[in-house]
Amino acid sequence: MGLTGIQIYKLLPKTNCKECGEPTCLAFAMKLAAGKAELAKCPYVSDEAKEQLSEASAPPIRGITLGTGENAFKIGEEVVLYRHEKTFVNQPGYGILITDTMDDTEVEAKIKRLNEMFFERVGLTLTADFAALKNESGDPSKFESLTQKVMGLTQKALVLISENVDALSAAGKVAKDRRPLLYAATKENADQVGALAKELGVPVAAKANGLDELIELSEKLTSIGLKDIVLDPGNRKLKDLYADLHFHRRAALKDKFKPLGFPFITFPNEMTDDPMKEALYAAIFVAKYAGLIVLSDLDAHRMLPLTVQRLNIYTDPQRPMIMEQGIYEINKPDKSSPVLLTTNFALTYFIVSAEIEASRVPSWLLVMDTEGLSVLTAWSAGKFVADAIAPFVKKSGIEEKVDHRNIIIPGYVAQISGELEEELGGDWKVVLGTREASDIPAFLRTYASKG
Amino acid sequence: MAFTPPLEKYAGKIREVVIGKGDKVVKLGGHNAMPGCIFDGDFPNLPKIALEVFDSAPEDWAPEAIKPYEDVVNDPVAWAKKAVDVYNAELVCLHLKSTDPNGENVGADEAAQLAKKVSDSISVPLIVLGSGNAEKDGEVAAKVCEVCAGQNLLVGLAVEDNYKKIGAAAIGYGHCVAAQSPIDVNLAKQLNILLDNLGVPLDKIVMEPSTGALGYGIEYTYSVMERIELAALSQNDDKMQLPIMNIMAVETWKTREAKLDVDAEPTFGDLSKRGILWEAMTAVDLILSGTSLLIMRHPEAVRLTKEIIEELYLGK
Q1: CB within 8 Å: A238 and B311
Q2: Same domain, A272 and A128
Q3: pTM for the whole structure
């Protein structure tokens, strides 16, 4: 990133050997600049050139992976300020705070929530990501034994919080194979904590008082050879932290300002005692530029909206808002299961299918191509009317999948029932469904119980 | 060397829209930077919150949402007063839901008289919306404009199919227009142009971009709003420089996450807090993407949202 084709060309062997698949080195350089080729395709590029080029092509915000195996997750590598410009890439991690002054019961209960809380949505499993272990006692041995204990209770990623180098060192050594984040290197201890992170080969966070100090710390850690860095500007007031997060994202993306080109860690748990407010801060940091979010606890009524918030904001906006026309199976339907009809506007489909899923009634959902229009809009545009629906239903193949001939239509298009029944012909019966999707579960349960 | 924070200066500015008259006035918009970015520009008016009032008792509300209004749901005037006096609503939004021709089909005259009664009995500006039936809404809104002449209400919803009727009545009787378009930047602009051509001054229009709740399309609303605000500010697009409003409570409180108790959804946790948080988090997303006016329901969600606004903009 940042280098032009000509600048890249100067670093290539200029032999035009064609082994990369391009006719000339210049053509290859142009492709590299456009991000359409991999440097590895050139067998003769010098190590020195490789280093320069990989430096230049590094993402403006470094990607950092915490944790290992299936519990590993990556943050950073964001490339836009607004999600519609492309998409947000790596979802921020949610973590639960556990301190070494909590008793065993509390630690176990919290880890249980971290391990077991999950929500199913659009075929995805939404969970929290890490435990943030804090050396509240100031005693390195207590911190070490908490870390040991938690390592035994969960496979999730860890953030180790202490400004005491001995405590960080003790816990870090226990957890190093888990790829934990050491939090934090400060103005006072940066040399020792930096050295520790280097020795253990794990990511390290820098905590400062304000952005100026943070930049100094970030440069210092970089200068001792550390690459995996996470930043905390220290502000715990919404207004100031909101500004810092914006300056970080802008400086990293627009000015390619390296010292701020790392993910940020935020602490809503330290900003308020009100759990509801804490959840709202977390929601703000999901939308505005955090990489890690530490919460005081994981309660279902807060984590459900928070995991959905993260899913929504990080959904790729380039994804079309249209579903493919066809038959969708929900809750493993069989020949006697009800058949419902809706349009192919993605949101309509999503809401309707979520409600059918929630009803737990096995069902067939017919999704008709209405060019992405919702039910009422499609009806008024003449695309969701009897003489369009009937041929679709007939050709959909649903008649082979069920042994009944009842079709449930959206309550908003009650007026088409008669005509649709006529157009469908045969034994087809039109059943009037609900107007609002939220009433579907109750409707389906009653409908199914009547057989 | 000290770090110089990268600031964004924009050529454009959102128009200021004034709703209400005399000593009950609320101003929307007027900012020249993206939401919460007080380091970039000026925000003479922070996002405002209106509380909902319905013209008939709601039937299927979540228990948590009905609780604060239990004693007033059958009396829209008392409901509006409670919203203002007890829950500190900055505006009241009257939903004339019973005018729905597929429902009770209450006539425009009767609905307009109620609007006037509510407006006369509260100390804050009033927003009046119909049932969502475009044709009937046009008729009802026109009558509301006439009966409440000169009060400078915010009246709607004007959509592509009825904007002429609502626009003309708003011009004639001195009101502002709430204009709703189907979740698309260009369609939003187009409706503004249509209203402009009709003669509605652009500083008398508030845009409703179609609002989805958290989990139910908020991401589309969010991005459409960011794009509208950016077009208004950085491209200085005159026809986009209007404040945005969001009719959001209706959407958030009909989700199953806000309604289903823990027996129906064992993994969802405490219902009463969940519903409030669902509304407040939706509100926060809308604040971050550029709203100037939220139509909300639960007083506790309003309190949380208001605190977030004040912390974000005023550093409280």
Answers
A1: yes
A2: yes
A3: 0.88
